[in-house]
């Protein structure tokens, strides 16, 4: 017996297939090299199906980024629940370093998109909203974890999170040139020096 999907179920299934295809094409070709035609082909749809779900390539990328942000925030929350203080901060940094190593292409893709978005005020504003949400969630996770051991970052939580993100972005670029640059232990040492008693 074949179970027919309802219209909303079909729409959601198609959206998921398009996001999976977009991830594959973006990682393979980069943001500039990816096309909606290639993404539609990868998903097994016409370009019209892509436009029925997304306004264009940037919209598709931002939806993909939003899904990734939600997944990472969930994982960060689990880590903070399992660890406290500097141990939690180190765990967050290690997991982030592992993610970066396993998905180096994603880090470079995100940097490429950020450069494109920086030249388009409307797109940059959309990206900035997601980035702010990510930064704020990360800042809360770090603050909660450190507070368990009576610790605080040397800077306001949002600034502390920005510093970690900036180090991560710079590290991605350094690793593209030299995979052995900036070992995780060095970054952990640097960041944990910015934490002290409340």
Key terms for this structure?
single chain, 198 residues, mainly alpha, Arc Repressor Mutant, subunit A, Tetracycline Repressor, domain 2, 2 domains, two-stranded antiparallel ribbon, 80% helix
Description:
One of its GO terms (molecular function) is DNA-binding transcription factor activity. Pfam families: TetR_C_6, TetR_N. Residues 12-72 form the HTH tetR-type domain. This is AcrR family transcriptional regulator. Strands 1-2 form a two-stranded antiparallel ribbon. It folds into 2 domains: 7-54, Homeodomain-like (Arc Repressor Mutant, subunit A, Orthogonal Bundle); 57-197, Tetracycline Repressor, domain 2 (Orthogonal Bundle). It has 9 helices and 2 strands. With 198 residues, it is mainly alpha-helical. It starts with 6 loop residues before the first helix and ends with a strand.
Q: What is the C-alpha radius of gyration, as a whole number of Å?
A: 19 Å
Look at the structure and name the CATH superfamily of the largest domain.
Tetracycline Repressor, domain 2
What's the number of helices?
9
Major sheet: order of its strands?
Answer: 1-2
The end-to-end distance, rounded to whole angstroms, is: 63 Å
> What is the beta-strand fraction?
under 5%
Quick check: average pLDDT?
Answer: 92
User: What is the CATH-assigned architecture of the largest domain?
Assistant: Orthogonal Bundle
Largest sheet: 2 strands, antiparallel
Helix content: over 70%
Q: Provide the low-confidence segments as ranges.
A: none
Class by helix and strand content? mainly alpha
| Tally of strands | 2
What is the general shape? Answer: globular
- SSE sequence, one letter per element: HHHHHHHEHHE
In CATH, the topology of the largest domain is named Tetracycline Repressor, domain 2
Write down the CATH class of the largest domain.
Answer: Mainly Alpha
């Amino acid at each position: 017996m074949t179970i027919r999907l309802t219209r909303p179920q079909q729409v959601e299934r198609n959206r998921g297939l398009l996001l999976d295809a977009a991830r594959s094409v973006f990682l393979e070709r980069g943001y500039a090299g990816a096309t909606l035609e290639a993404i539609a082909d990868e998903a097994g749809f016409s370009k019209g199906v892509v436009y029925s779900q997304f306004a264009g390539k940037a919209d598709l990328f931002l939806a993909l980024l939003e899904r990734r942000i939600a997944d990472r925030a969930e994982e960060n929350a689990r880590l903070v629940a399992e660890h406290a203080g500097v141990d939690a901060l180190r765990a967050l940094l290690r997991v982030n370093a592992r993610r970066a190593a396993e998905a180096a292409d994603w880090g470079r893709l995100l940097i490429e998109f950020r450069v494109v978005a920086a030249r388009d005020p409307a797109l940059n504003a959309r990206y900035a909203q997601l980035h702010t949400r990510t930064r704020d969630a990360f800042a809360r996770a770090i603050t909660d974890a450190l507070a368990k051991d009576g610790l605080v970052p040397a800077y306001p939580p949002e600034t502390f999170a920005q510093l970690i993100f900036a180090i991560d972005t710079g590290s991605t670029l350094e690793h593209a040139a030299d995979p052995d640059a900036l070992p995780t232990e060095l970054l952990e040492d640097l960041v944990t020096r910015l934490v002290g008693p409340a």
